[in-house]
Records
---
Amino acid sequence: MLRLERQPQDSRLMAWCSPLLAIALTLAAGALLFAVLGHKPLESLYEFFLGGVKDIYSVGELGVKVTPILLCAVGLVLCYRANVWNIGAEGQFIAGALCAGMAALAGLDIDTPWYAVVIMLAGMLGGMIWAGIAAWLKTHFACNEILTTIMLNYVAYNLLQYGVHGPLKDPQGFNFPESAMFNDNHLLPVILEGTRLHGGILIAAVAVIAVVLLLRYTHLGFKITVLGRDASAATFAGFGSKQLTWIVLLACGGLAGLAGAGEVDGPIGQLTPYISSGYGYAAIIVVFLGRQQPVGAVLASILLGLTYLGGETSQIKLGLPVSLTELFQGMLLFFLLACDLFIGYRLRWIPRVHPA
Amino acid sequence: MDMDLITNILFAAVRTGTPLLLVAIGELICERAGVLNLGQEGMMLMGAVLGFIAALTTGSIVTGFVVAALAGVLMSLLFGFLALTLSTNQYATGLALAIFGGGLSAFIGQPFVGKPVDGLHAIVIPYLSDIPLIGKALFAQDGMVYLSFILVPALAWMLKNSRPGLIIRAAGESPDSLHALGHRVMMVRYLAVMFGGAMAGLAGGYLSLAYTPMWNEGMTAGRGWIALALVVFAGWQLGRLMLGAYLFGLASILHLVFQGLGFDISPSLLAMMPYVATILVLVVLSRSRDNPALQAPAAIGKPWRPVH
């Protein structure tokens, strides 16, 4: 019979092969799904993942999707390394977008493109406040951060609804639940002519590099990793776990807030009831897929960005619901978790022994 | 405030608390057996959508609820295979289940959005339902509410006094001892996970077949997550769970209360209440962590494999 056996050492090879295997299995399951729905499996898969990327404009669109996912994911890398289960990037994203929106609306008449900096900083602050609530609840009241951050996601969502239906609604907007359009001058500049790709992706790139350096070369990065691997060792070494919890959550909140600010002060250009397509949740999958490494997160963000484009493409071309995106994301995480088993375990065939 | 208003508020609090109570009952049993399944939201949504489709196509509400429960069980088996058989991280697996269930239910349910179905009817018990204030809340509800009235004391008794209850608790407190005594820990945990799935499916079905008889993408609105907090709030005790569910029901219908009192507050701000209440409850609980009767099962969330 087949038996799972603990390996003496974790397999480093498998740690990096597991995401690839999981992607392959997700593709196979996706092909099956398309076949069941009566579509040609291979053509549909191609259409889903690559059909949306055919010219410079659509590459730009991919970048627009990757930017917020990557910003959230880089922050979550820090949290998950420290074993802080922040599920709240979504709420921190919305809080950031909301604060950025308020700053943008407050300064509509200011006549300098540099006001964008103020808007982005406001967004960062919003995300940090939102994550700070979770940090305070965890360090002061020992509240489980999974539950608090999820609840804060819903609170942020409803705050946004309150804002766009109430005080932030455009007075000249025919009663639509939307804010006024931001000043064009204040929007993040488009960095690739003929696309919607905006400066946010540069901020994301800086964030990736900063986190790589932090984790590789600084004492703080080392402390974060130790806290996550062995909390008692971290306490023994005198690394304040409360302080580290604050640091990783604030960092993540700031980055997620920037992501939200970049969305409203970039491609969207105003506050609407729907500013996130679940980027904060997708970022969680990115962290797992990217092996809790910032560089891995870059590759994984591109893949998750493709699932967002794919959802849109297959809605237009195949007439399938946009929720195909979430479906693929869920399958990906399932397969990944299953494949990750073989990092620590191996399958062995043990012949059945029949007693004589 | 007049009597009629209070009567109606109590009625609505029980009705609104029922889907929370149903899903939380399942999760409580699951956690008592040592398994933390964060994927309640996904199982509820699958129960809601498949139960709705079944009721719509067969015309039978009962079939709808049976299918809803089965859908929850199937989803929970997916979780069980990964988290129990393959010992994957229970947090991450539950999260995957929540995302996957959200996507799959929206995908399956898209053609059915906005279609009407004849919802579950109330069974009004004569005379008892005329009791002032509480009569309507307790005796003019539908069958699922009555089912939860029966399940809570029955399961509480089972956990405390019966052999299967002891085995479930042992699986959550000390799986090694249970294994040493010759019981099958995996089997116990699988059954608990499946029970949790069935209850989550029923809770989802309650939303799409009784509470608001229609299907809408993401219609559970975080109730699966609130249920997880409820179990913590209840200190893993069924009686307190019931009380908590109705308090949360009350928090969710505050807009009725405020309308009744003549206040005008934005519905979005009031929609925040259950989530804010959940956070406040977690804070208050942190002050009363010393009660030994209200502790989490010792082996909760820890994967367990038999040693040979």
---
Amino acid sequence: MSVVAFAVLAVIAVGSALGLVLRKNAIHGALFLVVNLGTVAALYLTLRAEFLAAAQVIVYAGAIMVLFVFAIMVLIPGKEETGPDLRRPYRLLALPVGGALLLELGLIVSSRGGRTAAPATTPGGVEAIGRLLFTDYLFPFELTSVLLLAAMVGVLVLARRRAS
Amino acid sequence: MVPDIWYLALSAVLFSIGVVGVIVRRNPLVIFMSIELMLNAVNLSFVAFGHRLGSPDGQVLVFFVMAVAAAEVAVGLAIIVAIFRLRQRLSVDDLSVMRW
């Protein structure tokens, strides 16, 4: 049962990722990415990571992708990537490069060295994550808030219309 | 029960597709979305490793990756909007100089 669920989710994830890369229209790509993020959230659920599944949907599919769609709508890049591509030979190099990368990653994944790790016990629910976040990872957690504040101020400075 | 190695394989496939997208596409917005795809692939492998080791540390790392990705997207999109204001075009081929 879980194998079937994984197979379906994996097919949808790979298909939507390919849709993002192959479709010319940026808005279609954004919607494909939303589908991809949703399937990854479902995969988190199959790995018993309920908190991350919720955070994935809220933060990624909710906040970040809305920002993307908004930027695409504002910038209207629908006419882009239609002219002749002067660097097409170089871009086609991406396919062998990507294939080589996939091969390397496959070799790394498949070479486990024969070690059997500890059986997957309880990965811990929201409570374990919260406890860890506010004990061992307290300093990085606080740094995250500083980072987000810096990003917010930086965006305001960048997006301000200069009166010149 | 699905072996964790399948999740790692799926993560590798998604990451490679993201790399190809970054190289192939000309629209900086689509390049950004491909980067998000790569971040997600890495997040998936984090969660798979955490599941395999039975520890919640992997999920905490994914939480931090999400926070950094949110900040990165906000700043990146602001930069793209600023470039679009200057150039009125949106193609990475135009962006071959660091200042103008």
